[in-house]
Amino acid sequence: MIIDKIDKLLNDAEINYLCDLFLANLGFDRVSPHYRHFRNAVILASRGFLRPAEMYTLLAECAGIDRAEYVKHLKSALATLPVPVHDAYNSAYASESGLDTPIMREGDLDSAVLFLGTVFMYIIVSNYPKYGLVTLNNQQK
After folding, report:
1. Whole-prediction pTM
2. Neighbour-count burial of 100, counting CB atoms closer than 10 A to its CB (0-12 exposed, 13-18 middle, 19+ buried)
3. pLDDT of 13-26, one tens digit each?
4. What is the distance between the alpha carbons of residues 130 and 13, in angstroms, rounded to a whole number?
5. Helix axes 109-127, 52-63, angle to 10 degrees
6. Which ranges in the chain belong to alpha helices (H)?
């Protein structure tokens, strides 16, 4: 399988910086070894309509580790937050804004990544339309 656009997307300094700003209010430690994996999952979730298992497989492939190890990094990133991710998100973005901001519900890893990816997609598409969707080409290398 050839992965079109994923490396360009994950290595884009501007997209990474915007995602860092978005995730900063949630309490993530940017120097944590797990943070980069979580940020990449949010970025990839924001660009296409892939199932979480497919995303984790592609991201693990890009990182040179197996999928189980990648998922372990994602769970560790969430576990090290000072408060649960849904509480952090709602506190930072939904509680006092007075806007029609989506409320994040408590959930598992997949729902956290997909929710944050969807919100980040809105931020990018509304304010910074730089990339199209990530596509998969099933041709062999």
Report:
1. 0.83
2. exposed
3. 888 999 999 999 89
4. 12
5. 80
6. 6-10, 13-24, 35-47, 52-63, 67-79, 85-89, 109-127
